[in-house]
């Protein structure tokens, strides 16, 4: 925990008092005023700690981006070449897309039905909802010219498979008000758990490389720190746990300290590796077995 103490000290020394006071005034007059978080939760990280981590995260993002800046273009080109003439056009995929879109629209209705609907709708920025819309995009943009981009996006969703898993392991139903919400949750997240395997078996995905790993790290960091943190301060919603850590028991102290977000980033980066290796590995084995069975049938015939 010495490094945490040093980080807290660095935040207090390096961030000017006027900046800390400005962030405090902004949060007190917006998110803390009309959001659901208590003052203790809202300022779990002090204003100076927020600013320090925000700037540190942007530096890390810039560094990772500089090393992997060509990954997206190269990945899309390589995947387009592998699947020349391929597309995701399929009745099954279209059905999946509309089911996911229906689940998302039901969430819009549910959250819009609560008190302070414009604040509650902010929960739609949680990773599982963004993942949902990405899958919808992949399956509805189904022309051959979209194939490389679709496979690039699906490869990232495979890396981030830990996100829907964590949502299923520790679901938050404390604010459910409709009887159908648990059913929608399981249908929605069940699809999010199945789709990476389905896509890896049926289509092309990117193997791990240094640039791939760094790309899969800086993109969510930029979204979380660059977008979700100011949005959480504005709305008072703990979007993607940017205000305070998840309420999980037995976590090491580093995950419950004011600098808990960077340790979580490290864990998620490790999970990116495991998710990619396991899902693509299982898909390769499945395809190898199926191809072997097809060859055996041809020999018998």
From TrEMBL:
<feature type="transmembrane region" description="Helical">
    <location>
        <begin position="152"/>
        <end position="171"/>
    </location>
</feature>
<protein>
    <submittedName>
        <fullName>TMEM164 family, putative</fullName>
    </submittedName>
</protein>
<feature type="transmembrane region" description="Helical">
    <location>
        <begin position="51"/>
        <end position="71"/>
    </location>
</feature>
<keyword id="KW-1133">Transmembrane helix</keyword>
<feature type="transmembrane region" description="Helical">
    <location>
        <begin position="264"/>
        <end position="289"/>
    </location>
</feature>
<keyword id="KW-0472">Membrane</keyword>
<dbReference type="InterPro" id="IPR026508">
    <property type="entry name" value="TMEM164"/>
</dbReference>
<feature type="transmembrane region" description="Helical">
    <location>
        <begin position="222"/>
        <end position="244"/>
    </location>
</feature>
<feature type="transmembrane region" description="Helical">
    <location>
        <begin position="92"/>
        <end position="110"/>
    </location>
</feature>
<feature type="transmembrane region" description="Helical">
    <location>
        <begin position="122"/>
        <end position="140"/>
    </location>
</feature>
<keyword id="KW-0812">Transmembrane</keyword>
<feature type="transmembrane region" description="Helical">
    <location>
        <begin position="183"/>
        <end position="201"/>
    </location>
</feature>
